[in-house]
């Protein structure tokens, strides 16, 4: 089993640490591969798109030739998790900020996003967030976070904040506006690993 | 979900913001047009300034926080984070920048210090700070004051990367030397380098600084950026290197590409081709000690 973390820019080592922590607690093993160049995505059973600057990530996904590989992986139903900037780049539709900067989107999840939906860095926040399917609230860290402002019928919203969707799922894809990799609470990475391992069992 | 649970400006949020910049290039800009060029080239953030360090150096006199109008116009022009510099110890300039909505404040030796004894108490702000450092002691003192990001001081405005190299190697080397030391020995090191002992122990355990550590001060080419990444920098600040170059657009794009491909000489060769002349620069060895910016701050 192999999980790829797109490592073009952003908090890659934080996701690596969190995945390892989660795997250790589950007593399972898995290759964790940071991906900076093309050629590795096709061998992965799961993919993570990290937090970072989405305009930078978009540009590098295209120039490094990784974008097409992720679109192919999605077509094969490989589980994909996008956090914050990662959620922006997997979206089908963007707001006027995305339009204005001509930002490339992977268009693999049927959601429309708004960048910096809650304001600038001084407005960034932490909150105990109720989220499906978690039983207890999760300490969600929002940093210049985006939000999902509309979505297709196959998208299942998992958490709301101020009436905006901040976590959602569409078949193999899990999108979060916040950063589960910055805390020590493994439940969201655990949920993502459940998706990967249950898929592997079906095959 | 209760809204009174909402927390702003925590250490997790401030350090988290800095972590999102990792692997990226932060570019100095002085106009909204330059900020857009930086954004298009793939910069993770821009540093809004009245003048780039090379011009500050040339102009002499007292260098202060940029005109709030310039900062506000740059904030309006781009979607990426905007940073700006305040003088060391000038907590009122910091309050002004926070009010403007700046996303990170650089308490910077490039400007003329406002206080020759104390740096700003950065824990009091909602907005995160970055500070320069030449060695581990200086870095940990800044972190204990609340800095969420450290950068090497280097020697700003020179286009000479040698001081940034020196400071990065110095910090990395000092961190490596902590390995294997017991608590008592670490307490001794903390005394010697005038660093808080708890932060020093944390650094020893992590085998790296507890916050992200960027390279700054003299980076002028894609190869310079790759060199600093190879030395272990988490990301790059480019000051005068972009807009003092012959072709800023090309230079900006090439440096972004180099920061991601720092371990691929064949890609570096490709992105370094035909980008025009870099900034002219001045060699460190010709700078008099009283003109050295890195000696500001302590």
Task: Summarize the model shown.
The complex is a heterodimer of chains A (203) and B (298). By secondary structure, chain A is an alpha/beta fold.
Per-chain topology:
The complex is a heterodimer of chains A (203) and B (298).
Chain A: E1 2-6, H1 12-26, E2 31-35, E3 46-49, H2 54-63, H3 67-75, E4 80-83, H4 85-90, E5 91-93, H5 96-101, E6 109-114, E7 125-129, E8 138-142, E9 147-151, E10 156-161, E11 164-170, E12 173-176, H6 187-202
Parallel strand pairs in A: 1-2, 1-3, 3-4, 4-12, 5-6
Antiparallel strand pairs in A: 6-9, 7-8, 10-11, 11-12
Helix pairs in contact in A: 1-6
Chain B: E1 7-8, H1 11-20, E2 25-29, H2 32-41, E3 45-48, H3 53-59, H4 68-77, E4 82-87, H5 91-100, E5 104-108, E6 129-133, H6 136-144, E7 149-152, H7 162-178, H8 183-193, H9 197-206, E8 212-214, H10 222-230, E9 236-238, H11 240-243, H12 248-260, H13 265-272
Parallel strand pairs in B: 2-3, 2-9, 3-4, 4-5, 5-6, 6-7, 7-8
Helix pairs in contact in B: 2-4, 2-12, 8-9, 10-12, 12-13
Structure commentary:
The complex is a heterodimer of chains A (203) and B (298). Chain A has 203 residues and is of the alpha/beta class. Chain A is 31% helix and 29% strand. In chain A, strands 2-1-3-4-12-11-10 form a seven-stranded mixed sheet. In chain A, strands 5-6-9 form a three-stranded mixed sheet. A two-stranded antiparallel ribbon of chain A has the order 7-8. In chain A, α1 (12-26) links the parallel β1 and β2. The radius of gyration of chain A is 15 Å and the shape is globular. The two termini of chain A are 13 Å apart. Chain B has 13 helices and nine strands. Chain B has an eight-stranded parallel sheet. The N and C termini of chain B lie far apart (45 Å). At the A-B interface, α1, α2, α5 and β7 of A face β1, α1 and α12 of B. β7 (125-129) of chain A pairs antiparallel with β1 (7-8) of chain B.
